[in-house]
Each structure stands twice: as structure tokens, then as C-alpha cells.
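Minutes, project check-in
Item: structure for the 342-residue chain
Input as provided by the requester:
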Amino acid sequence: MGRIDYDIKNKSFHQVYLLFGSESYMRIGYTHALVKALVPDEDTMNFNKYEGEDVQEKDVISQAETMPFFADRRVILLEDTGFFAKSANDLADYVKKIPDYLVMIFSERKVDKRSRLYKAVSSAGIAEEYGEQSEDVLIRFIMNKIAKDKKKIKRSTMTRLLQLTSTDMTNINNETDKLLAYVMSPDRPTAGRDPDEITPADLDAILTPELTDRIFDMVRAVASHEQKKALNLYYDLLALKEAPMKILSLLSREYMQMYHVKELSAAGKAPWEIAGKVGMPQFAVRRSLEISRQYGRGELRAILEDFAATEEDVKTGRLGDRLAVEMLIIRYSSSKRAGAGK
């Protein structure tokens, strides 16, 4: 149980909270849970909300100095103010001597842990970070949603679902809701299979692949010498208005990750250890390792160098961006790849 869960369950609250990090689904969810636990539904007099980077410290402090009206506490919620990424010394000083009747809740995507305000909040209350969640957490999250509707899913299908939705929990939540709605639809084909089981065919019918998943499919096609498939995937992305240089950047990232996981695997690291070192979910590490077996380390280095040189050629006008990426795909999806090495 997390510290905020504990406070809500025991109705024993700190006077200042900071919820921060890139995982907005959890951060926003816990922010709302805190507000709900602290503020009665009918109390609009003792709750104030400030949002955005135009919020002024003096306005917040002025409101904070207002005593609660026929209540034990006043609650102030501040969302995405940017106070933790800039100088907010007045608030930092105020937090150190926060009045007994006041609870302040900060919910921020970005935070500088070196800032005076962060240190003041960490000292006076609770600072909880919500970053990218592990594969096990994401699987439990999806399983709980599926179980509530009394549906079933195999582990392999679950892995495919994560590949299609990435690790963003807001996207996972929305896409799983769409999937469940489809599975319970009378129009869904169920002949010859358990109607309560979610299958890969259901995923393909309803979920739209994320850009990163399309890129990985392209990498897989290139590594398998499926040139026509790789080019068709590229043209599909262009038709969706994706910029060639963005596609090249994402390809470079995939090959760089492939290089790193191959190096770590060669050093005897297990997939879960690699995931922690390179900041990737375990399922992404496993699929990257699978493709990396088709390359030597020298070959991966040569490909990355070629990608960098191609980017420079585009920037200096020696090559057009669309043609440059197309040439790379053709070169490395041919039956005899350039740049082979151990």
C-alpha cells in the first residue's frame, strides 16, 4: 500500500502533498482520490483549485491565509503550475510554516528535485512520483479490468495487447475499454471459440497500432528481409502524415535499443535486469532481443552510423528526406545487408 493509499484509508492526512511524474493516469487518479477524501461533496466554500503556469504565488498564499468557513480545513489543489521547475521561493517558505487548517495538493508532470519548493514539500509532507509502470503492474491493471467484466485472456494475448497500447496507462485504459465493448457486442464473431476469451483476432479487429508498434513491425520486416512489407509499412506511415525524419528517428531509437539489449544480454544479464537498466518494459526487451539475434553487434553499429550519416545528408540538402529513408529501408531489407559484422 502506498503512502497516499494509507492516508486515505486511515483518514490521517499530511498538510502538503506533491504527486508528480509522466504517468498521468495514476497521478490524476490519486489526486482526485485525495480531493474526494478531504473535501465533502457539498463543501464548495473551503476548496480552491489553481491550474496552469499563469498562477501567481501571491494569489495562492492569499487564499491559503483565508480561514476555513464552518469547517476544520481548507484544501487547495494546484495542477501543472510549473512551480517546481522555476523559482517559487515564497511558496517554499510558506510550506515550511503551513497553517494547521490547510492542506495543499500539488499535481505536476515535471518537477526539478533540486528546487527549494520540492525540498520544502518533501520535508513537510508527501512527495510521490508516478513514472512508467512495470510490465507486471500493467498486466495486473488490465487483468482487473477484464475480470470485472468476467472475461478471460491468455498471457500471449496480453503481451500483444501491451505492444499495441504502449505503456501509457491512460491509453491502456481507453483501448481496453474499447476492446471490452467490442467483445461484449452481439456483432462480434464467436463461432468455434469461447465467447468469454479475448483473442488476438479481437485485438486486430478493434485496436489501432501505436506508431512505435508500427515502427517495430517495420524493423522486424527489415531484419527478416521482407522488403515489400517494410516499404508498405513506410508508405502507410507517410499516408498518415508522419514525417520521414520522425520515422528515421524512431527507427534509430529501435536499433539503438536493440544494440544495448544485445550488449547486456551478451554480458549475461537477464531480460528483467536489462529492462531496469535501459528503461524498457520486459516485453519490449524480449522482442528486441528476438530481432537482435539476426544482427551482429558490428552490423548494428554500422546501421546506426549509416542512420546518423543519412540524417546529416538530409539536413545539408544532399538528399530528400522521403527518398533517404526509403533507401535505408531498401538497403537493410535486401537479402545481402550492408554493414555486416560481428
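Outcome recorded: The CA atoms of residues 186 and 321 lie 47 Å apart.
No further action items on this chain.
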